[in-house]
Each structure stands twice: as C-alpha cells, then as structure tokens.
Amino acid sequence: MIRMVTRAAAVALMAMPLLGAAAHADDALGTPVGHVTIKVQSADIGIGRTWGSGRLTFQHHTYRFRIDGGSIAAVGYSKVTGSGDVYNLHAVKDFEGSYAAVNGEATAGTGVGGVVLSNPNGVKIKLVTQSKGGRLAAAAQGMKITLVK
Fold it and tell me: Which terms are listed as keywords in the entry (predicted)?
C-alpha cells in the first residue's frame, strides 16, 4: 500500500506542470462560450469513482447536469467544487458525453487545482477546482456528463 501511494505521489508531482499549462490555456482554447460550476465527490482505493452535479450557462440559459466517472491509481476521498469556462460548444446537445483528462491531485485538508477536459464533440472545459479531504491521485480520469431533463 505504501509503495502504491509513493508511486502515485511521484506521478502526481510529475503531472503538476500539466495543471500549470491548463491555467494558461486560454489562447490555445479560443473564446469561452459558456460557464460551468460543479460539485463532485471522489472515493478511491486504486480504482475509484467520481459522482456529482453541475450547472452549465450557455446562450442565456442554465442547464443542470450529472457527473459520473472514475479514475485509476488513486487513494482517498475528496469533495471538489469548481468553476470554469466552456469552449467550442455550438449546440447544448454537444455538451453531453464522455470527457477525459490527465491530471494529478494531492489533497490533504484543502487543495486547489486546475484541469482541461475534452469530449469527442470537440467541447473543452477549463476548470479551477478546490478540494477538501485526503486524496492522492495521479492518473487518467474520465467522466460522463448527462444533462438533466
């Protein structure tokens, strides 16, 4: 168990430059067309689960959505809130789908992070997150966003 946590910590530290790149990705992503807020929880013992909800503001409308996902190479539990901008969204139906990210998280008490998520429709979400709990993650992460009708 200690060996797995040590490896995860090393990978998380190597992933931290990616988080810095996400914070400076405005030029590469273009002009934001929407805004999101999220609240998720993650529980992990090697392979983990993430679940939560959020709101998308797009073209003067607000849409609620559910988040379900998972991660690998993570240990612990955290509650995460975040907000960010949405790019390359042309129709609200394109917001739904599976999103992928490679990131690292090291939360002991509270933490701050950032990530850029993308789906097969070309939609990108740049999030700034705040987490509470005790969690160490260093892996690919995926989540499915489903609009609440």
Answer: Signal
Total tally of structural domains belonging to the chain: 1
Among residues 133, 132, 115, the alpha carbon closest in space to that of 124 is found at: 115
- Residues 12-47: pLDDT tens digits? 444 444 444 444 445 588 999 999 999 988 776 767
Among 13, 4, 38, 43, smallest CA distance to 104 is for 13
Report the DSSP beta bridge partners of residue 115.
Answer: 127
Q: Which residues contact 133 (CB under 8 A, 6 or more apart)?
A: 76, 77, 78, 79, 107
Range of the domain at 122: 2-147
